């Protein structure tokens, strides 16, 4: 086993709220002094095998375990212009040309770079902070151990978040506010933009300034209250219990944007429920209900002339690596006929579903307010549930969806998630 020692400080740790704490936000130029280990530390394993190769061990300061690097991984991750196109940020390599027999001929170090000459004559240089933050130990394992840093709330604590209003004028003139908008959505599940002129043009300009509108079956920039061009209760004036949208899409739209541009009537109070808070309550109240609703697949559907959407999944969906709660799919109106449960077991199913629905409907969990002309609201549709009371009179609600992938791409760009 080859051993390489680096004596230095570790790269600065990230401050992003959802970032893995072990990952550097950027590669900080480091003064790393490389000291090769003495003869006794330089070991060569006998019986080298494809899965038990000579690993290059890089000793970093303040860590007990060395960073272990397999030659084939290192050769595959060469970032030279021949192997990697840093304009397209894509690899150039053909994986089948990557030799299993590849071996390190020599290695050296200068500042924070590790240089390698390969047995095939190729030369590579790697930034050591980059190696730390892109390998199993530095990234994947850290992601598995990540703790939740979101701020969940109920109907009382939501008023204590102390969020400064964000004005239309500020949004349209100050690029820096965009990061804050993304931060609030990720941290709290919603954000409001105030003093937006209640016109179609101004609403769409606000929407487009933040992210791309998504084009779904409902169109891009939709309007309700004035038409019934999609056969959904959202287009009518009745009571809508708290729900998430698009439980019937394979990827539910990530964010919802609402702007009530006209209201002349009575009723129509809106409410939001922090589904992640409800999840915590359920876990505490009835852990087996939480476990069940995290596991059992339910089908949801949306049907209108010419369309039939369907998707399967549990109510609580967890991240495949961190196992943290990632998405709530909860819309009791859009449930398909229940076929995923043998009839003998449906009693338990309804009992768990009702336990969850009771928590969702708990008054203490609801953040109540009126959506009124001037306020554009962005809501995390993977976390918050939204609803409204019935109303009489005239109302125009405009809005759009942002896809999860699009919104998270920007949040990552702003350094809020990793
Ligand atoms: C938001 N907008 C009015 C366009 C569509 C509403 C769709 C509501 C539907 N029941 C669902 O849960 O997805
Ligand atoms: O009309 C509203 O305020 C909410 C509509 C709604 O819940 C929906 O369209 O999903």
From TrEMBL:
Enzyme class: oxidoreductase
GO cellular component term, pick one: mitochondrion
Superkingdom assignment: Eukaryota
Cofactor(s) listed: Fe(2+); L-ascorbate
EC number: 1.14.11.8
Pathway: Amine and polyamine biosynthesis; carnitine biosynthesis
GO annotation terms (biological process): carnitine biosynthetic process
Residue ranges occupied by any TauD/TfdA-like domain in the UniProt entry: 169-401
Reaction it catalyzes: N(6),N(6),N(6)-trimethyl-L-lysine + 2-oxoglutarate + O2 = (3S)-3-hydroxy-N(6),N(6),N(6)-trimethyl-L-lysine + succinate + CO2
Chain ranges of the Gamma-butyrobetaine hydroxylase-like N-terminal domain: 67-131
InterPro entries assigned: AlphaKG_dependent_hydroxylases (IPR050411), GBBH-like_N (IPR010376), GBBH-like_N_sf (IPR038492), TauD-like_sf (IPR042098), TauD/TfdA-like (IPR003819), Trimethyllysine_dOase (IPR012776)
Alphabetical list of Pfam families matching this protein: GBBH-like_N, TauD
Claim: Metal-binding is one of the keywords in the record: yes
Keywords assigned by UniProt, alphabetized: Carnitine biosynthesis, Dioxygenase, Iron, Metal-binding, Oxidoreductase
GO molecular function, one term: trimethyllysine dioxygenase activity
Functional note: Converts trimethyllysine (TML) into hydroxytrimethyllysine (HTML).
Annotated family: Belongs to the gamma-BBH/TMLD family.
The protein's name: Trimethyllysine dioxygenase, mitochondrial
Organism: Daphnia pulex
Taxonomic lineage of the native organism: Eukaryota, Metazoa, Ecdysozoa, Arthropoda, Crustacea
